[in-house]
Write a structure and sequence with these properties.
- The complex is a heterodimer of chains A (about 190) and B (about 210).
- Chain A has about 190 residues and is of the alpha/beta class.
- Chain A has 6 helices and 16 strands.
- In chain A, the strands form 4 sheets. In chain A, strands 1-2-3-4-5-8 form a 6-stranded mixed beta sheet, covered by helices on one side.
- Chain B is low in regular secondary structure.
- Chain B is globular, with a radius of gyration of 18 Å.
- Classes of the chains: A alpha/beta (about 190), B little secondary structure (about 210).
Chain lengths: ~190, ~210
């Protein structure tokens, strides 16, 4: 299995690709920006993007979707019903689906945006904006902030500490590292 | 389960593997089936990996070196892509101009190591001990340095764009002539840290940490 990450200089939102080492059907998480570097990353590894997982529909996570759809025509999985008028397959908390040959677990983490979804694929957690290295996502009210903290605590931090968290922004982290070094979680755990 | 699913799971990189020794709950060591304690021939296993690393193959992808002692060997000019070095010991290891793309260097013991001219991008290095390390002239882009020990570490002439040092210990560290745009120093006591010719105003520093 191959995991590839793309860190564009503009927008600085992470995009991830998961596929077989031999190429073929693959998953792309959050097409924040579709640039030549990302295209080359896909083509050089002989991937066909068959599934797009959207963590939430904020522009810096979806801006490249329309271009991507013109090239690969993947199915789009998200927490909201359509993105840029592109129909999606909506998924809910606890759903287990198979995407491009990989089992994907859907975790609904409320508090950052109403359509936030976290995806777990084996040892990886694609957390979007809800959790990144040393930070949690932004919230519009104290109520949604508490909701976010509780969701992270009960749905993510209880998982195996060795799982790797691949956030929408910033470097990779792990559940163990967040328990030790995330100042916002340390006060609430 | 659809055909191919199990195959994909088994080949997952960075996969958590538990030691297969009865009732042991520790994680497996490097690419073996056992933790270090229960490995039937631990010394030979570690020696073979050190020998393989020292053989000179410079580009290494998707390997797990967790919990190994890689002290004293030279990894100059190596390029590691998607490799795991969790809890590795690097005492006296030479890492000049070494590349780490999307690697796990968490909880590494790397005191007094030389990382000059290294090229790191999207690396998890949280909780590691980099006390006295020299990173001069490095590209350290989008790195998770949260909780590290970086006492007297030297990062001079380095690009640290988008890296995070949340709750790190950096007393006496030097960041001269560095790009610190969007670097996060939240919770770091910056007394005695040298920022000459750098742009700390473009990083995240709270008032208490500056005082």
């Amino acid at each position: 299995m191959k995991l590839l990450s793309h860190f564009p200089a503009i927008g600085v939102s992470n995009t991830y690709i998961i596929g077989s080492s031999e190429g073929g059907d693959a998953i792309l998480v959050d097409p924040g920006r579709f640039d030549v570097t990302l295209l080359n990353l896909i083509e050089d590894n002989n991937f066909n993007i068959k599934t797009v997982l959207i963590t939430h529909d904020h522009e810096n996570h979806i801006k490249g979707l329309k271009t991507l759809m013109k090239i690969y025509k993947p199915s789009v999985i998200a927490g909201s019903g359509e993105i840029f008028h592109i129909p999606t397959k909506t998924v809910e908390d606890g759903e287990n689906i198979i995407c491009s040959g990989f089992p994907v677990e859907v975790i609904d983490v409320e508090g950052h945006s109403s359509d936030s979804r976290v995806y777990r694929i084996a040892s990886y957690i694609f957390s979007g904006d809800v959790l990144s290295a040393g930070r949690i996502g932004s919230s519009s009210t104290s109520y949604t902030r508490e909701l976010l903290l509780q969701s992270i605590k009960t749905k993510i931090m209880c998982l195996n500490e060795e799982l790797l968290i691949l956030p929408g922004h910033g470097p990779p982290t792990s559940i163990s590292a967040e328990k030790k070094w995330n100042p916002e979680l340390r006060t609430s755990l | 389960m659809q055909p191919g699913v199990l195959k994909n799971i088994l080949r997952m990189m960075f996969e958590y593997k538990a030691c297969t020794y009865e009732n042991c709950k520790k994680s497996a060591w490097a690419e073996s089936a056992f933790c270090r304690e229960h490995h039937p021939s631990a010394r030979e296993f570690e020696r073979d990996i050190r020998k393989e690393l020292a053989s000179g193959r410079k580009q290494i992808e998707s390997r797990d070196f967790s919990d190994l002692d890689l002290s004293g060997i030279s990894l100059d000019n190596y390029d590691f892509h998607y490799c795991r070095f969790s809890r590795v010991r690097l005492s006296g290891t030479s890492l000049n101009s070494t590349g780490f793309l999307m690697c796990l260097l968490d909880n590494v013991e790397a005191e007094e190591c030389v990382f000059t001219g290294s090229r790191m991008m999207s690396v998890l290095a949280a909780g590691s001990n980099f006390t006295g390390c020299n990173f001069t002239g490095s590209d350290l882009i989008n790195i998770n340095f949260n909780g590290i020990q970086a006492i007297d570490a030297v990062f001079d002439e380095s690009d640290l764009f988008y890296s995070r040092f949340i709750n790190a210990r950096a007393g006496g560290a030097s960041f001269q002539d560095c790009n610190l745009k969007r670097v996060d120093f939240t919770g770091v006591n910056l007394n005695g840290v040298n920022f000459t010719d750098s742009n700390p105003e473009e990083s995240y520093i709270t008032r208490e940490e500056q005082s």
